[in-house]
Amino acid sequence: MPARLDTNDKGIPQRAVGMTVDEFLATGPRLSEFWTPLVVLDDAAMRHNLATMGTWCSERGLELMPHGKTTMAPALWQRQLDAGCLGITLATMGQVRTARGFGFDSIMLANSAVDERSLRYLAGELVDPGLRFVCWVDSIATVDAMERALVAAQAPRRVDVLVELGAPGGRTGARTVAEATGVAERVAASTVLRLAGVAGYEGSLAHDRSEAGLTAVREYLERQVELHEGIRSLYGEGETYVTAGGSAYFDIVADVYADAGAGSVDDDTHFVLRSGAYIVHDDGFYRTISPFDEARAGEDAPRFVPAMRGIARVVSHPEPGLALLDGGKRDFPFDEGLPIPRGVAADLGEEWTSLTGAEISAMNDQHSYLRLADEDAAAGAAPIGVVVTLGLSHPCTAFDKWRVLPVVASAESDLVIDLVRTYF
């Protein structure tokens, strides 16, 4: 039975309570009916970003398994698969179970799996011959833990694993090529695991596009390719993978992987990007660091456009130049930069007017502090009751605050054409 909207789905119109999503959408809802605060998705922008990334990857012999933890929205995962993605990447076995519950059958776990309970679950899922599943290992201890659990669970077939290469000061992953090679040799000797390639995450090695940051990323990726070349004779029969690529440095990944043979008709290895944020992009962190930022890209270069925005209402004017909004940390992301005021309107569905020089200076759980430029404050630009549209930073901590998010046809449209449900 289709899930029905209820009073826990914040932001939805009161008349939607008790309806299924399809029933509600059939009534032609408008954004002007929704309550504030709100996070809104833009259908036209998402379609643009999907097509842009898909074309760019295809031209470079790269495949996409976008990180589903960004949105935890199966409807958006399906959009990505429909756009040609090889599968979906996830971060925990709990997320894998969610994906399997929705019928997804091509999954990469960008993590190690060592919990006996979740490995017992995985063994049961491997009965499905249509399931493509691959996870990571970065130590012999991890391999030992997987083996114990999978042998005890009598897994019906081997689990494909990738050796994860890390770097000093980074996140997980064997710290040297030599250490990773030892892990690969241990996997190759396993009776329940199959060595299927190499993996890693370059995004933790830099946080900007400085020369030092880009050099660190490139050198790490070159070591990953060195590992791949060094252990490929150990790979078991079947598909193999070389994978990296968050949403910040995928252009560097493409350059290094091109030198390693990405797209070669003579090589059956999947060179896989796992970028997850590209489907909605943002107005903050990724806008400043993505190679497809519209402010950085050349006139003819590919570019992403932001496909998510926040909306909050002015509820207080406690002092000149300061307005308090009804959305805060419980509603909007703040870990990679505070929301950015973009415009003000009398209400949802009305014409937006730009806010020049305004900023969000602080956030509480349910409030944001909107500081107005002197000229806007003097002109009474944000009186009590108006709504403010906000550029948001970091999709990964935007979606987790919402059970359903309305999707409008475009940035210029008030027509709600979908409700995307999340499963965090």
UniProtKB/TrEMBL annotation:
> What Pfam families has UniProt attached to this entry?
D-ser_dehydrat
Task: Note the SMART domains from the entry.
Answer: D-ser_dehydrat (SM01119)
> Which domain of life does this protein belong to?
Bacteria
Q: Which InterPro entries match?
A: D-amino_acid_metab_enzyme (IPR051466), D-ser_dehydrat-like_dom (IPR026956), D-ser_dehydrat-like_sf (IPR042208), PLP-binding_barrel (IPR029066)
Q: Which residues form the D-serine dehydratase-like domain?
A: 307-409
Q: What is the designated name of this protein?
A: D-serine dehydratase-like domain-containing protein
Instruction: Please report the organism this UniProt entry assigns to the protein.
Output: Humibacter ginsenosidimutans
Source taxonomy lineage? Bacteria, Bacillati, Actinomycetota, Actinomycetes, Micrococcales
